[in-house]
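Aim 2, interim progress: modelling of the zinc ion-bound target.
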Amino acid sequence: MLFDMSEKKSVQGDPAKPLMVARVQLEDAAALELDYTVPDRLRDRVSVGTRVMVPLQRQRIAAVVLELLDHSSHGFRLKEIADLKGRGDPVFTPTLLKLARWAADYYVCPVQQVLRAMLPKAVRARPESFVTDSHLTLVKTPSADEIEKLRAKAPMQARILDELAAAGGTAALSQLRRDLPKASSYLPALLKKGWITRAEVRIERDPFDREEFLPTQPLDLTEEQTTCLAPVISAVENPIQSRPMLLHGVTGSGKTEVYLQAIARVLERGQTALVLVPEISLTPQTIERFKARFSERKERIAVLHSHLSDGERHDEWFKVHERRADVVIGARSAIFAPLENLGLIIVDEEHEPSYKQEESPRYHARDLAVVRARLENCAVLLGSATPSLESFHNATTGKYELLRMTRRTDGKSMPLIRIVDLRLERRKGGNSPDTRILSERLRTAVLARLEKKEQTILFLNRRGYNTSLSCMACGHVCECQDCAVPMTLHKTDDRLVCHICGSRRVPPRKCPSCGDPGIRFAGFGTERVEQVLRQAFPQARIARVDTDTMQRKNQLRDTLRDFRSQKLDMLIGTQMIAKGLDFPNVTLVGVLNADLALNLPDFRSAERTFQLLTQVAGRAGRGEVKGEVFVQTFAPHSPAVQFARHGDFEGFAQQELEQRKVFHYPPDTHVILVMARSKNAAMAEFTLQSIATKLRAVIGDDVRMGEPLPSPLAKAHGQFRFQLMLRSCAVRVLARKIHRIVDGMTFPQEVIVTWDVDALNLM
Ligand code: ADP
Ligand code: ZN
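Predicted structure of the complex, ligand included:
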């Protein structure tokens, strides 16, 4: 991609030398593209995607080279690029630059924001900040005389020589420092005398602590797996003629095996593969499955997700950048991994909302995967047991190719799902709140598992002990001061905690509003469930898995290992355990409250509930014994619950798609959510109303626009939130109109206006 040294005469600089102009994008400032000349000394080192430092008004600013030209269309004399940032090798591949522009265009956000999102923070801030060590080697043995002198005059230097000799002539500085903490300060003298040499080596920060994985062999595929793998392989071999593929495979149908064998084929062809997994199921188990299968090249697998330290992420990213990795497994932002020569992109659990970034750039990694595959000219495979209705719709209309796996491997059957009607339980159990946590039927089922030494997973998507605290006398509810949500009691540390902003306070002993001591806790979270379970089953070994208990690094890995090796009988947890886990001895799964997702004010609440129930249920019966699932709900007849019970995804999708069409919701349309937030409620509301008025004047009949309303989460982090929902088939046109209007208005300083194209979070 370097500049071609053509004969063209330039008007600037040395007339004998053709001009080399770099069109750059400033990394932090406004969405400006500017031209700079490339000075001679940098000519060989600047290419498309290189980060450079450029002068702008009296400052030096970081920028990325977007294009190299032989002239500039700017009419003024250009300044020179001042320097490279980092080593100068391009950090963005040409395709990633195109992807950035695509995303900036579709989500209507500044391209430099996308570019910034493409680089891990540690790479952006301090590129090439590797951890290094020194290898010291004894090169010349001093004479006995010299050594004696040294021992008398500089005993530390002598000791270093002794240690090196004892270590066989060479040792790492970090090693030496263990015995001789000040070793470094004596090295210059030894180096000067020519007795030792010193070489710097790079130490990779390995998120796996150099763990070993037992290699696995490819399994003999089932008939369905074979049928689904074939089109994936032909898409890898012939991407031009392929469409994006959607693999709908029930839980336990062996989708991962299909991924693994497809990747093996990609690697045989000398290409690379990118696997996206939702953050939450990027468990040690998932990574292990990949590292174990490709064990002979496990160093060539890079992992990118948010639980890595900055240093680890920096090193993993460079591993990809320096082409030392050919498989990348990662969460959302790994869609930007700088892999080249891509053969296949896989998006597992493609329905997961966590693929959508909730801050600008508000991209959807699954959608970018489809776009990137087109730009890279490679195959793309989306997989799920519960595809998003968007993707399923694309598959039924022929935009995507639909691949189906309807059965579990090895003739294992789908679990039997039983519905527990909590309305009846409440009548039976009188006023005891415990029966609502653990119904009689579920309790009996758990007991039976304990007796048979089978394992149980209980799921509740709510942390804490009690989920609200309210006054019986005046009705006051303890809310967070900054967010419009009740605070949750965490009993372990006896604090009320806000689950939106994390603020904490000591629980009041009497009502803060009227002083009445009759203040009561209500609602339950995982902490409370754990206590109820320990009382009900004192003999059971129970672990709770949620973000409160899994703070320590490797704690999740260790807990899941204990569960696998049956040192634990039961897990109670939040969505951390809802997905992707494969434990053959789990024969019972309980969903303690199916209604949490169902009651959300969101047109996708039925879809979310269906997905959640199906995924959680899918953890049961993965071994020889058939699994059983209990779903506790106050809404036993809702379609989401009923279709999930019968494992009927297509039935659910068909009915839900009809509804969406009637009411013009996605995938029939695209949603854009405009939000105004401010510490001042009136200003936020007024701002959004003005935007709505202007919008109304420019949108056509094809756009459905709601009213500006307080968001369901009406206040968060001290800001009041108002939102306006727009729906249209022509999403790009609409997004651009919104942008133009918002851009052309001036808002009171404290109001922040955002828009979210294809919004998933409507709270
Ligand atoms: P999914 O991702 O579709 O839920 P998994 O890939 O986790 O399913 O597979 C479920 C289980 O079936 C795993 O334990 C896996 O090792 C096993 N499995 C997958 N394919 C086969 C096969 N062809 N033969 C036997 N077992 C298989
Ligand atoms: Zn709060």
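The longest strand covers residues 59-69. Residues 1-13 have pLDDT under 50 and may be disordered.
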